[in-house]
TrEMBL record:
Principal location class: membrane
Record field: transmembrane: 115-135, 155-174, 186-203, 215-235, 272-292, 312-334, 374-392
Entry's family note: Belongs to the SecY/SEC61-alpha family.
Function: The central subunit of the protein translocation channel SecYEG. Consists of two halves formed by TMs 1-5 and 6-10. These two domains form a lateral gate at the front which open onto the bilayer between TMs 2 and 7, and are clamped together by SecE at the back. The channel is closed by both a pore ring composed of hydrophobic SecY resides and a short helix (helix 2A) on the extracellular side of the membrane which forms a plug. The plug probably moves laterally to allow the channel to open. The ring and the pore may move independently.
Keyword Cell membrane: yes
Species name: Nocardioides yefusunii
Compartments, as annotated in UniProt: Cell membrane; Membrane
Organism superkingdom: Bacteria
Topology of this chain in the membrane: Multi-pass membrane protein
Entry protein name: Protein translocase subunit SecY
Keyword field: Cell membrane, Membrane, Protein transport, Translocation, Transmembrane, Transmembrane helix, Transport
Gene3D superfamilies: SecY subunit domain (1.10.3370.10)
Length: 433
């Protein structure tokens, strides 16, 4: 692997791409540390020292690399773009016009990408308004009575919201620059950079929770984390390959077909989307209580069971939501009927299965069987940091589990594969050989 890295940097065009990606990530991380105008930096830092990271905005703060609670110009991070992308993926299935655009190829996909950008800016305005409103009222960093803004005026409020929205637009631009001129998917690499940025502090939080002189629990966490990472890599690479045979057919004077291929069905077909859906949905009760009356039986129940994530009821609901959203997302992203029709249209068939409706039923059967272990895998991985809260005293950004480990491993594998493919084009030894 080190030799492959050396070969990559020996290749001039690939070296330029890798250095360009590093430059963009450096700019991105620098913007994540620059406070927005009007923010009282010293008070924010004082409040952060008293804050437990497992708050209601832990997921968004994870995707912003800790920039959210610091109220920087990149405070919203990549979260508005992720939300907009998920919404557009769902709307493509529901709205016929968007479905038609998806089938138009590159031109239609460019139009959908443009819609995603507009929706991202709209969501950035909404999220920025909510976050700045919470900061102005003192509810963003609960338990801290220091003012987070220099002024409560409407002008300061609007200036910070506009700055955060502009920061989101810049993040989109940086991600597209990486995709066009660098290596890998730009947005995925920016998410990876933000998650990795919180990794050292999360590890240090585990160490501090067990005392300065006690290194045994810390070493045990590292060993367990490496084992979890190996398991995640194994599952992320696992797939069920359904063989497909194409019959020979004569078109004019040329013979086409007669080839064999396969349909790869991944065990984790839905990625990290179900975890994001479930986490976001479980934040809604605490958010509603934060904006409404914090007294009463409903508010007491929500604060008791849904505040920290360590409650057994929270874990059970979280696990069940992940199972549901896994099946839901797979059902809208993989259409067995469409795949079966395309195979029949181009003369393809699964050996031993008749074309048409029998092929559709077979694909649906295999997909439902393989989605179940994938859903269990996502649920168990997502519960690891919640269990770690009470086991080793870690926070909800515990590094070896949940969304963070899925993002780090998934993006790293995809990027390594893309670099490997470029190396193989130049007859170099790849990363995974």
């Amino acid at each position: 692997m080190l030799g492959a890295f050396a070969n990559a940097f020996r290749t001039p065009d690939l070296r330029r791409k890798l250095l360009f990606v590093l430059l963009i990530i450096t700019i991105f991380r620098f913007g994540s540390q620059v406070p927005a105008p009007g923010v009282h930096v010293s008070n924010v830092r004082s409040c952060l020292n008293q804050l437990d990271d497992g708050g209601i905005y832990g997921m968004i703060n994870l995707f912003s690399g800790g920039a959210l609670l610091q109220l920087t110009i990149f405070a919203l991070g990549i979260m508005p773009y992720i939300t907009a992308s998920i919404i557009l993926q769902l709307l493509v299935v529901v709205i016929p016009r968007l479905e038609a655009l998806k089938k138009e190829g590159q031109a239609g996909q460019a139009k959908i990408t443009q819609y995603t950008r507009y929706l991202t800016l709209g969501l950035a305005v909404l999220q920025g308004t909510g976050i700045v409103a919470l900061a102005r009222s003192g509810a963003l960093l609960q338990g801290c009575e220091l003012p987070l803004l220099h002024s409560d005026s409407t002008a300061t409020f609007l200036m910070i919201v506009m700055t955060m929205t502009a920061g989101t637009a810049v993040i989109m631009w940086l991600g597209e620059l990486i995709t066009d001129r660098g290596v890998g998917n730009g947005m995925s690499l920016l998410i990876f950079a933000q998650v990795v940025a919180t990794f050292p502090s999360s590890l240090w939080g585990v160490k501090k929770a067990n005392g300065d002189g006690n290194w045994v629990p810390f070493g045990l966490v590292i060993l367990i984390g490496l084992a979890i990472m190996a398991g995640v890599i194994f599952i992320e690479q696992a797939q069920r390959r359904i063989p497909v045979q194409y019959a020979r057919r004569m078109v004019g004077r040329k013979m086409f077909g007669g080839s064999s291929t396969y349909i790869p069905l991944k065990v984790n077909q839905s990625g990290i989307i179900p975890v994001i859906f479930a986490s976001s949905l479980l934040y809604l009760p605490m958010m509603a209580v934060g904006f409404g009356d914090q007294s009463g039986p409903v508010a007491d129940f929500v604060q008791k069971h849904f505040q920290t994530g360590a409650d057994p009821l929270y874990m059970a609901v979280f696990f069940l939501l992940i199972l549901f959203f896994t099946y839901f997302y797979v059902s809208i992203t993989f259409n067995p009927e469409e795949v079966a029709d395309n195979m029949k249209k181009y003369g393809g068939f699964i050996p031993g299965i008749r074309a048409g409706k029998p092929t559709q039923d077979y694909l649906s059967y295999v997909l439902s069987r393989i989605t179940f272990p994938g859903a269990l895998y996502l649920g168990l991985i997502a519960l690891i940091p919640l269990v770690a809260i009470s086991a080793v005293g870690a926070d909800q950004n515990f590094p070896f589990g949940g969304t963070s480990i899925l993002i780090m491993v998934g993006v790293a594998l995809d990027t390594v594969k893309q670099i490997e493919s470029q190396l193989q084009q130049r007859n170099y030894e790849g990363f995974l050989s």
